[in-house]
Design brief:
Distance between the termini: 27 Å
Radius of gyration: 18 Å
Shape: globular
Largest sheet: 9 strands, mixed
Number of helices: 11
Number of strands: 9
CATH topology: Rossmann fold
CATH superfamily: Alpha/Beta hydrolase fold, catalytic domain
Strand order of the largest sheet: 1-2-3-5-4-6-7-8-9
Order of helices and strands: EEEEHEHEHEHHHHHHEHEH
Length: 302
């Protein structure tokens, strides 16, 4: 295990980021961690096509007061990338791996931060183990049909209906460098504020041999999520986790239409639509960190 000092934002030892790896079912699962070991825990679950790298600035901003843990899923970031014939790339399986990860690193209770793919992974955990979830932070993470009722999802929904090479072809366009840059820059206020390090890190990982098949498998598996929306919504209604919505309202993948329905089911809800895009942390990370700090101080017991 190696540690190195993180950029300013934490305090003392809490400002040091640890870059760790644990074995889960024979896979190396990489994760970033910072903060006092006895502090309130935040489990950070990343989206597509990135990794725990998306939390590189949020973690030190909160590490003086909280323990933050951000794993990379299999096939992403610095975790093992087994081929599709050696690992079943489904959201059920990713959730199973992350559940075992939380057990391995002894996360008994935690706030769950979800974005994009992090939502279907995290909500599976929350519905299965509601006693572990102290609060939710939702950044462009969907749990409602309204959130995927837009043009972006049409070719993906067609693939759910018929898994053919012909219907997969348009989805390959989502894996290009141009598409990755678009995800980071569309809907932001200032494109010059978005670091090109994002796509220069994500794209070479997407371009690894065999990764296209992984991503197509998960595009198809995303079709398993809408049937679970009623179950997740029932979890919200029954358990009423304190929830902070910090949503980039200009996102064309998960637009604000997917944020609004949370108001139907959650009573203890703090709701913020931010004037930015899909990866809201890139432009509004400081705002999100401040909102989280105040929210967690209020709602999560020490």
């Amino acid at each position: 295990m190696k540690t190195r000092n993180n950029p300013p934002g934490g305090a003392g030892a809490a400002a040091k980021m640890a870059y760790r790896t644990v074995k889960i079912d024979g896979l190396d699962i990489f994760f970033r961690e910072a903060g006092p070991p006895d502090a309130r825990v935040v489990l950070l679950l990343h989206g597509f096509p990135t990794s725990s790298h998306m939390f590189r600035n949020l973690i030190p901003a909160l590490a003086g007061e909280f323990r933050l843990v951000a794993p990379d899923y299999p096939g992403y970031g610095n975790s093992t990338m087994p081929a599709v014939d050696r690992f079943e790339y489904t959201f059920d399986h990713l959730a199973e791996v992350i559940e075992k990860f939380t057990d391995k690193v002894e996360l008994k209770k935690y706030t769950l931060y979800v974005q994009d793919y992090g939502a279907p992974v995290g909500y599976r955990l929350a519905a299965k183990h509601p006693e572990r979830i102290q609060a939710l932070v939702v950044q462009n993470g969907n749990a409602y049909d309204e959130g995927i009722d837009n043009d972006f999802w049409k070719p993906i929904k067609a693939y759910w209906q018929e898994k053919t090479a012909e219907r997969a072809e348009p989805l390959r366009g989502f894996l290009t460098r141009e598409a990755t840059i678009w995800q980071y820059t569309h809907g932001v206020r200032d494109k010059e504020a978005i670091s090109p390090d994002n796509w220069n890190i994500d794209q070479p990982l997407l371009d690894r041999p065999g990764n296209t098949e992984i991503q197509l498998s998960l595009f198809y598996s995303y079709g398993s999520n809408p049937p679970l929306y009623p179950k997740w919504q029932a979890y919200f209604r029954q358990h009423q986790p304190p929830t902070l919505i910090v949503w980039g309202k200009n996102d064309q993948i998960f637009p604000a239409a997917g944020a609004e329905p949370y108001k139907r089911d959650l009573k203890n809800l703090e709701f913020h639509l931010l004037d930015t895009g899909h990866f809201a942390l890139e432009e509004d990370g400081g705002t999100i960190a401040d909102l989280m700090r105040n929210f967690l101080r209020k709602h999560v017991a020490r």
